[in-house]
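Reply to dn_fold:

You asked what the input looked like. This is it:
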Amino acid sequence: MLARRQVLAAAAAGVVSWAGLARAADYDVTRWPVGQAAPVLQALDLQGKPWRLSELRGRVVVLNFWATWCPPCRAEMPTLQQLAEIYGPDKLVVLAVNVSEGPRRINQYVQASGLNLPVLLDANGEIARQWGANVLPTSILIDAEGRPRQRVRGEVDWTGREAAALVEPLLRR
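and this is what came back:
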């Protein structure tokens, strides 16, 4: 694993963030703790639409915690968008949960980058804390039954073979 350097996190979030050296292999995958239930996910997106994990049953969900100030987050965002497009919304949904930033800043990033994933708001970092996303970026892979399966900490090329090896078994269940 490459050496990591600490990046200042938004104090209000209480989230510690580590920026990798922008390499696809600079991530860590762990199984979701056995017996630990999924926290309730209920959040609004940038347009004010409510999102609930319970309403996404039947589809695999990639819950990605990120921030606009986080270089590895910005680097992996295009591949997350491609992942969603590759599998389609009937099979896989990518939810980009922005941690501790305001809608104005997020909208600026979304417009400049052309991002079209649903961006959920976590203004105080509470959703990130509940899901154990104490590193940005962190992605939680959730099976079609709504059960978290893996936590991925760090930047991932979501169009690569390694990511496919994480996602495709969840699609076959």
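The longest strand covers residues 92-99.
Hope that clears it up.
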